[in-house]
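Annex B. Sample input.
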Amino acid sequence: MKNNYSQADRKYLKIFGARVRALRKQAGFSQEDFALEIGLDRTYMGGVERGERNLALLNIRKIAKGLGLKERDLF
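Annex B, continued. Sample output.
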């Protein structure tokens, strides 16, 4: 995916994505099952976890809720 993010922004997105992936796995979800559970596309979740997506606030809320966490716990 082509974007104009700075190197620092890309690093931040990758760190966030890795955190989401770790929490998802800890909760026992496959990527596909988790995406279905929270109403997001599996390919979108893959992009999040790879640090390719700059998430909208409402999607962060969906991810947190799906993991049984508060939004702040994702950071």
